[in-house]
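Narrative progress, year one. The postdoctoral researcher (J.K.) led the effort to move from monomer predictions toward full complexes, under supervision of the PI. The following entry was the first complex the group processed end to end, covering 1925 residues in total.
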Amino acid sequence: MSKPKPASRADNKRTILVCNGTGCVSGKAFEIREALEKQVAELNLKGVAVDFTGCHGFCQQGPIAVVEPEGIFYTKVTVDDVPEIVQSHLRDGKPVARLFYHDPVTDEAIPCYKDITFYSQQTRIILRNCGHINPERIEDYVKTGGYDSLRKVLSEMSPEQVIDEVKRSGLRGRGGAGFSTGQKWEFCYKAPGDQKYMICNADEGDPGAFMDRSTMEGDPHTVIEGMAIAAYAIGASEGYIYIRAEYPLAVKRVRLAIERAEEKGFLGDKILGSDFSFHLHVKEGAGAFVCGEETALMASIEGKRGMPRPRPPFPAQSGLWGKPSNINNVKSLATIPVIIARGADWYSQIGTEKSKGTVVFALTGKIANSGLVEVPMGFPLQKIIYEIGGGIPNGKKFKAVQTGGPSGGCLPASLINQPVDYETLAQAGSIMGSGGMVVMDEDTCMVDVARYFLSFTQDESCGKCIPCRLGTKQMLDILNDITHGRGKMEDIDLLLSLSEQIKAGSLCGLGQTAPNPVLTTIRYFRDEYEEHIKNHHCRAAVCEGIVSAPCSHTCPAGVDAPRYIRFIAKGKPGEAVAVIREKIPFPSVCGYVCIHPCEAKCRRGLIDEAIGIRVLKRFAVDNDNGMWKQNSKIATSTGKQVAIVGSGPAGLTTAFYLAKLGHKVTVFEALPEVGGMMQVAIPDYRLPKDVLQNDIREIEAVGVDIKTNTKVESTDELFTQGYDAVFLAMGAHEGLKIGVKGEDSPGVMDCVSFLREVSLGKKVNVGDSVAVIGGGNAAIDSARTALRLGSKEVTIVYRRTKDEMPASAEEVEGAIEEGVKIRFLSAPSRITKKDGRLELACQAMSLGDIDASGRRRPEPVEGGEFTMSFDSIIAAIGQRPEIPSRFELSLGRGNTIVVDPDSLATDKEGVFAGGDVVKGPASVIEAIAHGRLAASSIDKYLGGEGDIDETLAPPEEAMKPLEEAEEEMRVEIPAPPAKERIKNFNDVELTLSQKMAIKEAERCLRCDLEEREE
Amino acid sequence: MAGIRLTIDGQEVKASVGMTVLEAAQEAGIYIPTLCADPDLKPYGGCRLCIVEIEKMRGFPTSCTTPATEGMVVKTNTEALNEVRRTVVELLLSDHPSECLICHRRERCGPFDICLRNVAVTERCVTCAKNGNCELQDIVDYLGITELPFKHTERSYPVDTSNPFFYRDLVKCVLCGKCVRVCDEVLGIGAVAIINRGFDSKVATFGDRPIIDSSCVSCGECVAHCPVGALMPKVTERPEEEVATTCTYCGVGCGMYLGVRDGKVISVRGKREGTVNNGFLCVKGRFGFDFINHEDRLKTPLIKKNGKFVEAGWDEALELVATKLGGYKPDELAVVSSAKCTNEDNYVAQKFARAVLKTNNVDHCARLCHAPTVAGLVQSFGSGAMTNSFGEFRDAGCIFAIGTNTTEAHPIIALELKRAVDNGAKLIVANPREIDLVRWSHLWLQHNPGSDVALLMGMMRVIVDEGLLDQAFIDKRCENFDAFKASLKAFDLGSVERITGVPKEKIAEAARIYAINKPSAILYAMGITQHSHGTDNVIATANLAMLTGNIGKPASGVNPLRGQNNVQGACDVGALPNVYPGYQAVTDAKVKGKFEAAWGGSLSPSAGLPVTEIVEAAYEGKIKAMYLIGENPLLSEPDITHAEEALSRLDFLVVQDIFLSETAKLADVVLPGVSFAEKDGTFTNTERRVQRVRKAIEPIGESRADWLVTCQLGKKMGAKGFDFKNASQIMDEIAAVTPSYGGISYKRIEKGGLQWPCPTPDHPGTPILHTQQFTRGKGQFVPLEYKPPMELPDKQYPLVLTTGRSLYHFHTGTMTRKVEGLNILKKEGEVEINPADASKLGIADGDRVKVASRRGEVVAKASVTEASPTGVVFMTFHFAESPANRLTNSALDPVAKIPEYKVCAVRVEKA
């Protein structure tokens, strides 16, 4: 039986076009096409054709199929979807909605590609035909006006006129350096020589870049036409397209296109009846990155090792085989036919003054929509990332973007509002390059990124010149040292000076640009280098050399989560507590309320969901048997005395460790209750008082003396009283003002005072309807507390959206469950008292550009004012410390005490400070971490070693990392129903059962046990 | 040459167009550090040390790649430049054993001193053979580097010791690429290349095998060009002094320095200035000098008593020889002189034969190589020497190499051919075998052995038929064209294709390439001459050159490449039976009178016997005594068995040599001569250039300079005119009696050789012959007909044997077989046979095979290779263990009396 032949596209009412670019092909696009053809034939559908196109550029959504003429865009198509598409859509005219594209921001299903932001924001010139025509049929190209430009050039224009047109268009080389294409042609045109060569550089080697490949796969004839026009202009009769051999589909389609063009007389002798002859050859490159450099590329065509040579002589004078040669990038050439067809004037209107036309980016990395993006020069980076790119997935924060591949640089979030063109990028220390654009989020370590790119360029250095061959090796070694915790602070300067010398001394662009990623990451992310060097800390928790498990690495106090999770898995919660107690004296508090930054970095999260580390900790502390005490020791008295001001997590942690080291410690607490914010800011339903007491009891047990209701006004007095050192840890108890008119009205209060009052058992009446202003944990706590106080309606007013809320997601969810309403994108503007109620005037906001925090800045919506009325309003927009003036300390931003970050010493001899007084409002675990650091440096100050680490847990059995992880979601935390919860201040969640805890603990990948290579 | 002016470091500098900034600076004596720039190689720009600042140019261009232009303002030594340079060198040192480089005690530290800093022996400069001569050391000193800021990341590679002459220690390699480039750009071999990328980049052979397993020809140019200690000769001693001289191996006549230490030659270095080789040397020239101080050297005269050699004093030996030789009639005596010996040695030898022994029976091995050249070219042009100089070939439009395996036999001339091809010349190779030159050729004519006349006449027929001839030249400069033209009739391409086995089209293409791409030079060697019709072959090449006017002009001509170092000179000074020095016929009474006057005494009026006939006469008992200087006919004569018998039949045989050769063993008296390292004199190379040979060491044992031995013998026999005090005096006498050498004296050739004709002391020498008119007046076209070789394959002996040379050995191996390293590189003679023939005979590569001809048989190892065409086997003749000449045919060319070495019929079977 002969294969049924679908009718041609023209005669059909409906055509389904399957993307046959490399990305979709690897997703079985060939099979999908075959299945479609078979189905259509079997159902004997008239007026339906099946065809294929090249790459649509939206590879994230592949395999893609488009049904024309209506432009229905099907994403992630599989062979199994074929019958439904054919029967429902092609036969019955009902599109298959489940295969539509879903907007990552709004989650809206969008049937037509024209309406997808990814496409609607683009200006496609280079990629104009990609995804629309069958690249293997020259007729399709001709139908779009293809080869008309060549015909026009040959019949109407002299080479000089062509060159002039291209010069006037302002087109600059899209291969990276951005040199004027017309001028380049002119040099070659003017160079004396009977034989000249026209070369297309299709050696696309940047990691993540694939626009040249897609262009050749999707629209090979435009490249060929561009080459023929260029060859006519410069006077070349021979041409080469140098394509990397890793692009077999591109090689195949270009070869086929050359054959067809020869058959049709667009290539070969006497083209279109003119005197111009041009023979085009394909040369496959062997995948050396340096062969993208034009002199190395020519050496490679000549059959030599691809190594660059110094210029001059420039290829225009002495290129391939010593003859004048001109090399252009695929994208430059693909633009040429359009410039000729529509004119230089039209083209030069697109883009900026110095950077004309459009540019194609290969958008990849931590971005919702990865794919090919063509925009006018000068398009804002922010729009590329957030509108076309759909933003950063998984609610992570945007951190940086690398443009220009390994030769480019990393731009930080602060530059995201810049336009993208040659000049701006150069100013920022990066380059346009061939258009690679790798988006990075908070889980990317910038030192590691620099190291990665350096390892790439070092691997690809041809070895010819010393600065590149050995300089990048030295840089790579230094970066390896830094990422392995072996770095020295001098290394940063050595990297900078080496970079300068390598840039100045290297032979070709590879070496001259290789240091760019290092230079830009040092320029914009120097603090991360310093953290690696000084603290052996990688904030993204990716550097294998210093990160054993990302969870424990991310824990500010360094609690060894994987180890205690293993004890829990073995049914030994006591041992687990011992492990936790090796680093913190507040295991119970953390078990209940830790913000668990560890979970955000948990590697299990990459598979399904992060381990419930905090709930496991809570399970452990709730089942503690006190075995940790066996190994806990207290040193003999040193005779030194330390005064600690404040009994919050920072103060008590310091007190605990100093006491264990043999110092006499007294803690002064201004409030009547011990515990600071843990006591007075975290509501009971989250942290029951007895739980907090458990931990405080153990602290007092090591000999810490706590004096409540004692406010310290002067540090000098403490020294007079005989204290040898003072640690200030008073927290941040002063609520910030909203800064709107009327906030002093009765019924308006700040959250700190509100929560404190409630906590201290005072009677607080908030009425039936309460507004909470802010989006942090304090706002949620206030809202939920208000509910429990009997408010009927609690509304959180927040000026951004849910994604930007600083509060923990689970807290937000808890609040919503309990009935808290949230008004997003609303900023308070005025409070007035009316009829005994408070009128809160608000301004509706929308999100605009990205600000320095990496979040989109809320901007007022014109005419978006509205008013709501409440019984009381709680401002939860932040707190700051109150520092008695007699302390005479230097204060910094937000009224915080300025300290040496490495020792927490203030500028006053013997006085140290930590916790929220230094950091501003932060978390319990961060305060504990400060407390540990303070204990260590105060001990050193008092003549000790500063060693506070202990081994409390028994050794564990030898184990191996989890070999295979089957998908298994994290445990659901048992909780009473929301309706019940809001009735009282009882604990809102329950302790896991042993069975649940073991099951959850067994999900741990045990990545700390992974064997690591040096 | 057009001049330009530029300013370098404030100094006005003159340079010529085409010079780089680096070259201009170097010429002005301004030092710019560099590791990769080399005058022999194309600009590279890799090491980044020669960067400079140039006004109006961005960044730091490399001076080695930037052309100097008028008015350029250059700075070579600014702080910014040195900062980059320092970083570059510091980086280099991070990857190089560098402990000593920055040690302040380096100058004072000896290799056997204990290092105070405990630096490992392998890391120490003082134990590196390059110490004191290392360009990296110079640059470190120039930049004043005393600290190493970077972490040491040295790569570790085992030292490649596989080559017998040099080692490769990649740990010390700075990747300047010079070895790779010289091997590619100059040699055209490409035995090494840079492999891998990034830090792992390194110089390696194909497949990263030991160098011995690569296509390396061991010429050592890489070693000579290495700026550091990565490539070093295995002999690491440094010479105390170096003596400039001329190589003793082939006819190229390369200039070299012999390095002497403790009275021994320990090194050889190529000489650049005033030489034909521009400093390049081949494997034999550079490494093949162990024979000089070899223990087997003859140290005293030997007299055979009761069949055994007994050491004797000079007086006794000379007395015995004088007495013996004095006892024969002139016709019963013969002197065989040597193309290995100096002009002075040969002059004295032929004078001894003629003036003392009164016989013209004097000849030498030119008979066995280029006698047809002399005979043929004299007939055509009037002079039997190479018409042009090989330094011109680089400018040729076409090079037609027929019957020359240039890369093996004249390696340094092969470099010129490579350069010519690089410059755009078309290379046509005509050779039955797929020799190395074929790799570079545009056209390869694989003709049947012995079909040269047909091939050449076929080409000429095309040229005439297609009107590609130079009629004006023919009309003006030549004669006898019509008769010649008529003789072309027989050579229609159909017949030529049949005879030669070369397709018609290729013959026509060759004719066109040769005729159109002028100037075209013909090169040939023994593939043309060693035939029973060798003279016809030579004449055919002369006809071809005249037909197209490719003669008397630069980069053209007919260029026989002579085999022995002084075969040209030995002929020039009269070691030939028919001519006195300067090719003056012995049969010319006037000439005879002149020499009788000069030498005092009567001379024989009739021509003597050529060496091939001398051997025959000895066989027949007509020659009874022979004085043989530096020759080894027992390997070099055709049909050795016959030659051995002939020499055994002599009454008295004196052999003067440096080793007890196969022939010397037959002698009655053996006289110890000296090698080229131990005597003064001159060699005349293949392009007629008379060059100095200088004494570097004292004669070994009691050996004496060959001319001195002959002179003493002459004096013992009572002759006058043998009182030369030194070689210079002999040259003065040569100049006096030899018109073409009239202007040559040691004083004039002190700095560089002179090409004859050089008739007067103020004559500049003659690089190109026949520029205005031919030596004989008009060039003579000689009609030719095709004659097949004398012995063609038949049922009994179905294969053709052709013979030739190996790069690694020279002639009969008396010298090279004494060099251990050369014997490692090529330890035995092989029989090259085509796979088709081999499989028919059941022979596998490496099998021992017996090769038999009508005259004898030889056993050797088979090498099955496509290089040999079907029906043809190939052997070299260097090896006494498998002497090819036991098989060859002694059939002679009727004019030149050269034997047909190149074609005989053999049978091959598994041994």
